[in-house]
Amino acid sequence: MGRLKGTIAGFAIAVASLLAALPSPAWAQGTLNDMIAARQRAAGRDDSRLLVDAREIVYNNDRNTIAASGDVELSYQGRTLQADRVVYDRNTSRVFAEGNVRLADSSGAVTTASRFELTDDFKTGFIDSLRVVQTTVDRGETVRARFSAPRAERIEGETTTFLRGTYTACEPCRENPERPPLWQVKAARIVHNNQERTIYYENASIEFLGVPIAAVPYFWTPDPTVKRMTGFLAPHFIHSTALGFGVSTPFFWDIAPDRDLTIAPTFYSRQGVLLQAEWRQRLLTGSYNIRAAGIFQQGQSAFLPAPFGPANREGRGMIETNGRFAINPQWQFGWNIALLSDKWFLQNYKIRSETLASNYLLLESTSQVFLRGQGDRSFFDLRGFYFQGLSYADWQKQLPLVAPVLDYDKRIDGPQPLGGELRLQFNFTNLMREAAQFDPITAANRSFPFGSGLTTAAYQSCVVFQRGICLVRGLAGNFARVSGEVSWRRAFVDDVGQVWTPFTYLRADGFFNHVDTTGYQNAMVANFVNPDQEFIGRAMPAVGMEYRYPFVADTGNFGTHTLTPIAQIIARPNETHIGRLPNEDAHSLVYDDTTLFDWDKFSGYDRAEGGVRANLGLQYNWQTPAGWTANALFGQSYQLAGRNSYRIPDLVNTGSESGLQTRASDFVSRFQVNPTQNFSLIARSRFDQGDFSVKSFEAQAVANFNPWAPITGSLTYVRYKEQPALGYLHRREGLQPAAAWNITPNWSIGGSVLFDLDRYLDNRDTFFNAYAAALAQGGQALANTVVYNRGDPYTIAQAGLTLGYKDECTTFSINYAMTPRVAATGERETDRTVLVRLELRTLGQASFSQSLGSTTTDGVSSR
To answer: Alpha carbon 157 to chain centroid distance?
Structure first.
């Protein structure tokens, strides 16, 4: 018999049309469609029609049933029922389906069973030997939740009760489907409430590979379709010497689609209850959050006494807020602000903060507010900064409040007939600091003005405040600077391929200085600047030309070679007021291949390069048809006339020992080669212009061994010569290998190690003391020959290792981190932490962190 298709209300128009010719008293009351539709309307249900597809339909007038068989498919109100045979009983309005039964609803859930007994709308009934697969998308990945039970009951299409049911999000084993999944939950009853989107488990046990590991009398979880739901989140466990054992039990409150609140009390066996809360809200143009944490400490003796720790504090806490909002497509504003009760709070209680910044040994919290705009060829940025020191040596009065900082940059087409590009730049910076910050250059000039040891703060200053042996990192008072620059450039290419680029710029700066000389520490700045000179102006005009002439050779299979000589000359007057102005934003000066052809090699506005300077370089490029590429650059800079800005020291000796302080600078070079897309090597270096000794060297190799092996790795090596004028009394040398290996599609391992080849971070103070002793005994000559007993040729400054497993239902990782830090006592220590994290997809996650060692953070006592 051929296939029949049609629509009926309770079963099918096709059924009615086939049976319309048969005499039957039942049809006097109307068609089957009419009867089922009337029954649905009487029950308050929608009278939508049912789609039926079957190979054979049989009407039994005596039993008042209709049977469909042979690849039966029924669709009704977004639900589709498939089976080998379906019988509809008009007397009871029940549908019986058997043989490879499959029911799919509009949410994507698929239920398979050996037999269904349902109402005619498929919402209520009993199911035998069923399996349910519910498909959702979470964080871009498809998640399938699986239920199974020998017997289940479906009520009004909203609640399904699985008797002796199991639940898992793991895929069954393809080779052996009967093998237990990686994890599953077995329960006497599993109730899935679609309306509440919640799964309830009664008398449940959690199994791994079929082995029970935990029994839970009763619990519930959101179903996989839930992105946000009010309820308890997975707990977090922690242990440390100062805090004891702790467990955090977060509670999430889904207040509305645009806002929520998370409250996370953490119970510590030694310190009491730490309460954390986070409010999040999304508005039409952006979002913001507010986080707060606080505790009344019960075991204050676990910490060091003031000023090295918070042992004298009972109440401790923090509040932090972050926000990002778009005013329009070009403009946005935001903030990132944190206020802390003390410098040790975040570290002691392992609290994350988006304001934290780390530089190996030192920590600080940076708060800021900003307004930013960007056009096609313009940029505007307005910010304010507040820094809070979190390291033992930080004195908060020495850290500045910087507000505002305004930057504006705009590029336009140059006026005719000049053409080219015209660039306008503007900067305004205002800075305030309560106490001057001094830094000794030599070990002999080090002092601790408030003492050292366990009684007073241990920040560092100078014994003698004079140029050459003491640097001024920051002045006390209020300082403002306004800078404006207009520049023009245009490239001309002549008939033989030479590129001529004339350029010019004019920069003007105004400094408004109010130096605070109150107190002994601040009064010492008079040895370096004139406190009474409150306004200083500076102008720097410049003209220059850059010349390039690329020579190209095509050697066929050996590739294309391009050799480009580059010459640049810039004429300017001398820089004025060197050493008499604050230097807050131009401390860092790196002279290498990336800055060789910069018009001004200072990194900020507080310094302005002067004099006539020429920059020369030779660049080589090679590219082959097979994909090989290589690039090399070698160059040098020359002070032709006028005063060399890098030779004259300022308050922080910027430019000294930079490689630019001599008339002919050090040589700089770069070499980069990419044999394939999977491998690259880059090296850059600076060589002494006299004896060609290496002043600095950096190299990094990156390899991706795919498709031969699922391994990626890198090797980084750096070496910097000592710079005594800047306070670096001996060389710094380090090596960092890093690798990641996908052992299997599920297992991976990765890590990195930073080797301090000179033990600089480990023995810096030891060297300082030996250097000072040699200086006192035999002067500078003997001090320069000091070689301290290093013992091992290196130390491990930092290390990290991660072992992870991930599949469609489980994420598991073990992380080990070793980082250096300076304790409140001034001693260098190593913080070793292990973090274990387990996530059962759709069920929840838990984590545990353990610090290895007696001291783990600043301010912690060893008791």
So the answer is: 43
Q: What is the spatial distance between Cα 741 and Cα 743, in angstroms, rounded to a whole number? A: 6
Helix (H, G, I), strand (E, B) or coil at 225: coil
pLDDT in tens, 601-620: 999 999 999 999 999 999 99
Question: 792 to each of 385, 720, 755, 798, 818, how far by Cα in Å?
Answer: 42, 20, 12, 16, 19
DSSP assigned state of 343: T
Closest listed residue to residue 520, CA positions, set 460, 436, 446: 436
For 582-646, the DSSP string reads: --SS------STTTTT-S---SSSS----SEEEEEEEEEEEE-TTS-EEEEEEEEEEEEES--TT
Q: What is the pLDDT of residues 69-102, one digit of tens each?
A: 888 888 877 778 888 888 888 887 788 888 888 8
Q: Is 659 helix (H, G, I), strand (E, B) or coil?
A: coil
For the chain, the domains span: 4-230
- Residue 529, SS3 per DSSP: coil
The highest-level CATH class for domain 4-230 is: mainly beta
* Amino acid residing at 808: E
| CA 250 to chain centroid | 23
Contacts of 564 (CB under 8 A, 6+ apart): 548, 549, 550, 551, 618, 619, 620, 621
Q: Is the dihedral of CA 117, 122, 125, 131 positive or negative?
A: positive
Provide the token pair at 705. Answer: 């061994």
Eight-state DSSP code of residue 860: B
What's the token pair of residue 678? 């999977």
Question: Under the phi-then-psi rule, with left for phi > 0, alpha for psi from -120 to 50, and beta for the rest, what region is 692?
Answer: left
Indicate the pTM of the whole model. Answer: 0.80
Q: Which position has the token pair 């000592």? A: 722
Give the long-range contacts of residues 28-37, CB within 8 A, separation 24 or more. 32/8, 32/66, 32/90, 33/8, 33/9, 34/9, 35/10, 35/90, 36/8, 36/9, 36/10, 36/11, 36/90, 36/93, 36/120, 37/9, 37/10
- Return the residue matching tokens 């299979």: 557
